[in-house]
Structure formats: structure tokens, C-alpha cells
Amino acid sequence: MALSRDEILSATDGGLDVFKHFISDFPGVGKQFLNPFYEDTKPSTVVYKHKHGHLYNFVDFGNIDYTGDCFSFVGWVFNKDTSGKEGFIDVMEIINRELGLGLSSNKDKIRELTHRFPNTLKTASELDPLTIKPNQEIVSIQFTPPDYKGFTAEEQMYWLSFGISLEVLKKYGVRSVKTFYGTSKSGETYSMNSTQDEPIFAYPGNGYVKIYRPNSQSRFRYSGNLHEGYSFGIDQLSQRGDVLFITGGEKDVLSLAAHGFNAICFNSETANIPKKIIRRLSFRFKHIVLLYDMDDTGVKAMNSTREKLKEFNVKALALPLTGGKNQKDISDFFRMGKTTDDLKRVFTEMLGILYEETMGMLKSFELDYFNPPKPAEPVISINDVPIGTEGNIMAITGSEGSGKSNYLGALLAGTMLDEFEDTDLLGAEITPNLDGKAVLFYDTEQSEEQLYRNMNRILKRAGKERPPSWFKTYGLVGMDRKDRLVSILQSMDKFYYEMGGIHLVVIDGIADLMTGVNDEDSSVGLIDELFQLAGIYKTCIVGVLHLSPSGYKLRGHLGSEVQRKAAGIISIEKDDDPLYSVIKPLKVRAGSPLDVPQYIMAWDNDLKTHITKGEKFGNSASVRKQNELLEICKDLFSEQDVIPAKELTQEFMSRMNVQDRTARKYIKTLRDAKIIISNSGENGIYRLV
Fold first, then answer.
1. pLDDT value at position 660?
2. Domains: count for the chain
3. Among 205, 207, 388, 487, which residue has the fewest nearby CB atoms (within 10 Å)?
């Protein structure tokens, strides 16, 4: 297929795949994100589907200048003007190459037409008016192309002293000049001839040429229309990279390119660098680094430019040179025998200085392989599999009326038992609190009366008449939401020191510590805070929250954070028989949920509490796994009749927190058990039997 606008849109889902490829952490269609083309502080840019036809566009509601389709977006990324044919073809080439579309190109033919008919096919220019004043002696007021020649052996040796080969010169369009023609401001024509002692080189452009005479008193001359936006090397840059150097001159760009670096320069070190160019380049390169001469003028210009461009986090690299005539710039650096690795070392040292504070802080978090950390002690286990451990958070979830509070009570009762006491803890095993550390129970959902009744059940299960002095219970339902978390954090700190540590913390209703479970920032902040405290106090923090309506995911952004950070998640669900509830592991960091038996619990009218009724599937791990997968399949296929294999794999990965290979193994298990089969005539499409 030919490279064209329609073919690209057809191959990229109307351009959506292009946006996904070039926008880091793409949030999805219709969801707002920060505009990458300027210092945006409020997300107001969205990708949306056009109401007429299958086409995706983007718009920044905070700056309506940024609106268009996927081609416009890529044009801004790579500084290409898509209003002209040349720029649009470049953008199509970039999309084709970056996304691996495999479309054939008509680029060369169109460019040939562009050169054959220059007055008919033109591209728009963003460049500002001429900045080299025409009354200066070094500027020819009339442009006459120089006479070019091949590079002599002496000229080649000159460039090679900086590591610059003929291949690099050719790539950047550098020419050797035989004769340069100029016209003075008085209208008189003149010419300059290249000699062995005073060679002449040219950096040609579109309608202008910049002349470089390295051994002459007046080293630079100009002829033609040299614009404000003049830059050298920008067309030869990699599409993306880690470091981009901005140097003071063309020779420095060539030296860096010859040693494998991306580099550009503007007209001089004192030139005003257009911010729009830096903004676009900042989207393509991680570090933009000024690398000017080390004389007083260069250092002053570098510091001034860095200050002007600080919004783009532009850095300045000082070379280890004296700043004298022969030790001034990066070309001298390489001429003195320095290598690519030497420059990388100087750059790394600069980053070390910039990141000194961060690296100092990070040092204490570095893993010392030869001094392994002490294994986290289990606090809560099931069948000898750790579910809640020191330094981690654990979650208990389930629907209303499933028995979450009663299961929670069994865990709390376990902290009151002596080492060899045998009590029904609903399948759980609790490490005894032999040192009398604090056990803290915070409830944000139940009334004081209900909390008191639950406390009596906890004591009855533990065989105690009253709570130990180290067991503290708080009903926070009447406390203002904004005060609850502060109260929990400060009381934890107090009891940690007062009682020599914290054995277990239980928060029944962690969602009530914030304004809403879908507040992403608050959710991340809360879980990070609890996770940090679990590590500091070397305890296990258990949080109780509700499942989403699907029954397989924890609710809201808070649930997503818990899903990621919790070491273990236990779900209490109603069984098919409404008299029973199932204690089901959803996540076990120390193994697979399928390695943990599912226990049945039920209310005992005589004992006035829940008791264990045994395992749901006996002792067969394979039966447990198959039934677990069957329940998920029923939920998935209740919403659609057929599901592609890729989508089914992703659902198992998400719902069971497993890798791709394990998810595909589960699908094979379901196929072998004749629970799912391929849809008639459609390989890779499954339906429930």
C-alpha cells in the first residue's frame, strides 16, 4: 500500500494509535492531560473522536492554537510544518517508521517535483525576519552561490583533527569553496579565493550560505537571507534521544556528531534562541544541554541562556578546559585526544552534582545484595501462607452482609491468644502477641452500640473477659473525616513508643478516611502514608473496604491503589447457599491465591458467632483453581457472548494479578475442561459452553 493520509488513518484506527504512541502515559479518549508543547499546569488537552467519520483529533481548551489531527500533533513534535507538502510528507514518513506500518513511500518523487517546480510548490515558514544587518561588511547584500570544489588532503586533515570525517561533512552538507562571491553595501562585487593557508568552507542553506574561514582574521561571512531561526544540524537529529547538545558553532556540532552525539547550534552563542524550537525539542530529548566555549564570553552567554530557558530545564555543561585559544570549545576537547567516553564522564559528573541531594537520599534505599534484609515476619497466615506481614498492608473486602466484620473480629481475637491456645479463627493463623505490643482497632462505620457488641464477640472467641491493656478500640464514626486520619497517625506514633511497638493495626472502613474512593490523589496519598507507616513501625496494617459491583475489583481509585500495594487481599463473599460465606484469597504476594484454601464460614445460633465449616473444595488445589476460573468466566461472559483470546488473557491478568503466561495457562485449563470452546469457525474467539 502507498504512503498516504488515508492509508495511515486506516492503519492507525483513525489516528488513535498515533496519539497513543507519541503521548506518554496516554490517559484515553476524552480524558484530559497536560499539553506537552508548553509548560502546561492544568490538564485541558483531550483526544476525541470526530463526530463525522472514524477520525481522532486533539484540542487544547486552554490554548486553542493547539488543535488538529494526528499529523498536526506529530508535526509539532518534530518541528515539521504540515501545511506544506514537504513537511506533511516528512510527518507521514515519521509515523510510518515509528509505528512500523510498512507503507511504501512516494517521498522521493514528490521531493523531485518540489525541486523541479520551486515556484509552484512551496512550504510555509515559521522563521522570523533577517537578523544579520545588511550594512555589515561581512554580509553580501546579493546572494551568489560560491564555486565549490572537492576537499583537498590538507582540508580533510584539518577536519579529521577534530574527528570529523568526509562522511560527516557530507551528511551535514558542508562544502569546500573554491571562490566566494559577494557584493558590498556600496554595490561593488568582490571575490575571495581559497588557498592552502586560508581555506574556505561553506554551510549552505535555502537561499543563503554561511562562509567559514578558520585561518583568516575575519572567519565568518554571510550571503543571502539568513533568518532569526537559523539553526544548524536540526535536520540531522535523531527522532528521539537522551541528550541534545546546543553548541556555539557549526564545527562543534560536527565534532559532536562525529563522536555519536546529537547536537545543533544557532547563529552564535549570543543569538536569541527561539523558545518554540526548544519546546518541541524538549519533547524529543530527555536532556537539553548548553555546551558553549569556555572563555569569558561563552561562559557568560551560557549562563544567560540557561536562565532564559529554565522553564525547559535546560542544563549547562562546563568543559574541563582553560578557555584559552586552543582550549576553548568541544572541538578542542576532541582535538586534544579526548574521547566519547570522556565527554560522557563529564556529563555524568554534572548530573551527579545536579542530583547530589536526591542521590544522597536514595543511597539509604539502595539494595545491598551481600547484606540481605531480614525476612518480613508473618502476622496473619492461612494454611502457612503469609497474607499479612510486618511492613506491609493487607486488605479485607466483600459485599454488604457477607461477614467482613466477623472475620475481622476473628483476626483481632487471635492477637489475644497465647502461643498454644486452639481457637476457631475462621481459617486464619495469627502470630501471638507475646511481647504485649499495641493492637489498634479503628472503626469508622459502626455505631458505638454495634462496636461494643462486636467487641464482646471478639472477647468471647478469644476466651477473655476484658481486653488486654495493649488492645485499643476506637469508634470514629462521629468524628469529622478530616480529623480521622490525623487521629490514627498520631495515636499510632504514641502507642508505638509507649508499648514498645505495634503488633497489628486494623482500620474498618479506610474509605471513610477520605472524601471519596475515586479521588485519585487522595487515594495514592492515603495508601502511601499507610504503607510508609507499616514499614516504619514494623507492623501489619489491615484495611477493610468494599468490592465494586462486578465482585472482582476493589472499588474506585482507592481500590486500585490497595490492589497494587497490598501484600494480601481476602474477600468475604456470600456462597450459593445464603447460609454460608466463603473466605476467598484474591491476592497473595508470597504465592498464588490458588495455593490458599477457601474456607466456608456460617453463623452459629448457639455460639452467637461465625464458625468454620471446612474448605469449600476439599483439599484439591486443581478443583479450587478450576472453580475459581469458572466463576470469573461466568462474570465475563454474562456481559458478552464471545471474547477474543487476547482480551480474555488481559482480563485474567487483571483480575487474578498474574503474568501473561499464567493467564494463557488458565485459558488452556478452561479449554481442556470444556468450560470454554472456540466459537464456530473463529479461531481465538471463545464462548462459554
1. 78
2. 5
3. 207
